[in-house]
Write a structure and sequence with these properties.
By secondary structure, the chain is an alpha/beta fold. Helices cover about 45% and strands about 10% of the residues. It is built from 13 helices and eight strands. The longest helix has 19 residues. The chain binds nicotinamide-adenine-dinucleotide.
């Protein structure tokens, strides 16, 4: 890193984090950082953003308490700023979570770069834009990285970190270390993998699910049940690779590949994206209403949070849980 872009603070010494864009993901980041004891400033241009954000933090707080709050952690450490410039003025790390629109990200990252103290790393929550495409307008692109979270960021540990062509590799290392200190599990990519890693896998499943709904092969409920009562239970413990290795019995993955390799050529999948026409759109939306069975989004969020914590606890991934 050049001298002017060297991060001013070491990852372990960060105390003040700015979150710009405070919707589902930005709000989830705010909750996460508050739970880990950081001072958080947030900015979002929507008129109702502060009320929405505080509701999200309040709803997340019981889950954060169960996970174990850092000393001094409090929702009172959240300041909602009137301007973007004010939000980042004293930040030691910035997380951008604005809408997924390339032009908006480009302009916003340039504005953040201009307003944030030199050397402070700025991460984007983007679900899939390569940083190379987003850092085009910034004067110091070296400090811009992707830090891709999973919803909700206060519960799902993974963050995927990558730089763009003009990102300083030191900024990528710094961000990865910072996220680890802040309690996340990190995958660092040494290149711009399209869709990153986990989203690419999720996208394959999502496309197949939409094809099955569009073709009348499965209902929305069937699809959800097929994962929650099936492979999803295993995937919380092991990934798809080790899970399939066990499907090979004592012969492990080698036997699994010998046995099922030929079916790879069977026409099971249709990975081209289906046309998201009105019929498919309506079928998926009304199928979800039906599957919710009267539960509101707030009910489902609380249910999901309880469930993820129970899985994390049961698999020894929380401090003090049995299986460590
Ligand atoms: N929703 C997910 O599951 C998910 C998961 C991982 C990453 N992401 C990524 O996170 C980012 C945010 O997505 P979201 O789902 O939270 O969207 P969202 O619509 O819930 O929130 C976006 C927020 O950005 C605010 N906003 C609008 N214009 C802005 C601007 N110019 N500057 C700052 N804020 C602005 C909006 O008022 C809104 O509160 C996107 O890049 C998305 O791809 C989303």
């Amino acid at each position: 890193m050049t001298e002017t872009s060297t991060p001013a603070t070491s990852p372990a010494d960060v105390r003040r984090v700015a979150c710009v864009g405070a919707g589902v993901i930005g709000g989830g980041w705010v909750a996460h950082f508050l739970g880990r004891g950081y001072e958080v400033t947030a900015w979002d241009p929507a008129p109702d953003a502060e009320a929405r954000l505080r509701r999200l933090v309040d709803a997340a707080w019981p889950a954060l308490e169960q996970l174990g709050l850092a000393p001094g952690a409090s929702p009172d450490r959240l300041t909602v700023s009137a301007t973007l410039e004010e939000a980042v003025a004293e930040a030691q790390f910035v997380q951008e979570s604005a809408p997924e629109k390339l032009d908006l990200k480009r302009e916003l990252l340039a504005r953040l770069d201009a307003a944030t103290p030199p050397g402070v790393v700025i991460a984007s929550s983007t679900s899939g834009y390569p940083m190379t495409d987003m850092q085009t307008e910034a004067l110091s692109p070296g400090r811009l990285v992707v830090g891709h979270p999973f919803n909700p960021p206060y519960l799902i540990p993974l963050v995927e970190v990558a730089g763009g062509e003009r990102t300083d590799p030191e900024a990528v290392r710094w961000a990865a270390r910072f996220y680890e200190v802040a309690g996340k599990s990190v995958i660092t990519m040494d290149r711009e993998v399209p869709g990153f890693i986990a989203n690419r896998l999720q996208e394959a499943l999502w496309r197949e699910a939409l094809h099955m709904v569009a073709g009348g092969e499965a209902t929305v409920r069937d699809i959800d049940l097929s994962i929650t009562e099936g492979p999803g239970l295993r995937w919380a413990i092991m990934g798809p690779m080790l899970t399939f290795a066990l499907a090979g019995g004592e012969g492990g993955m080698a036997h699994m590949l010998d046995h099922f390799g030929p079916s790879l050529k069977s026409p099971w999948t249709r990975l081209e994206a289906p046309e998201l026409d009105k019929a498919l759109y309506d079928a998926v939306v009304s199928g979800c209403d039906d599957a919710a069975d009267g539960r509101t989004i707030a009910d489902l969020v609380a249910e999901r949070d309880r469930g993820v914590i129970a899985v994390l606890r049961a698999t020894g991934r929380l401090p003090g849980s049995g299986a460590e």
